[in-house]
Amino acid sequence: MNFFKNNYQIKSNFFKKAFIVFFIILIVTIPAFVFAQVTINPNLPGAKIQTSNNNPCTSIINFYWFAIFISGILAFGAIVYGGIKYQLAAGNPSGESEGKKWITGALEGLLLLFSA
Question: Tens digit of pLDDT for each residue in 83-116?
């Protein structure tokens, strides 16, 4: 009985560490996407001056693509979490079904978002 308690603690510690590592990687990589939005306009002779296209339609389109990006990252995380949960179930039917629910829920959410 002591083995199962320690095994549960190992799984719990693994998920805590994986969660922390995931968010550290996320925090480190987010600025790369922000810096990618900077446009450099060199002052070349004869070059046209670029005007910004800031209207409500462009803002809505940009928000839509941002939502697609964020939901893709969240769905990937949910699929990975469900896969890990499924693998660590080790034949436990309730753990396997919960892992499958995470994976199918993430895929259904992506399908719903992409079809909208």
Answer: 999 999 888 889 899 999 999 999 999 898 888 7
pTM of the model: 0.53
Q: What distance in Å separates the CA atoms of residue 90 and residue 18, rounded to the nearest whole number?
A: 19
Amino acid in the structure at residue 10: I
Distance separating alpha carbons of residues 108 and 106, to the nearest angstrom: 5
Q: CA nearest 37: which of 26, 52, 22?
A: 52
Q: Alpha-carbon Rg of the chain, whole angstroms? A: 22
DSSP string of 44-109?
-TTPPPPPP---HHHHHHHHHHHHHHHHHHHHHHHHHHHHHHHHHTTT-HHHHHHHHHHHHHHHHH
Per-residue pLDDT tens over the stretch 16-51:
888 888 888 888 777 766 665 666 666 666 666 666
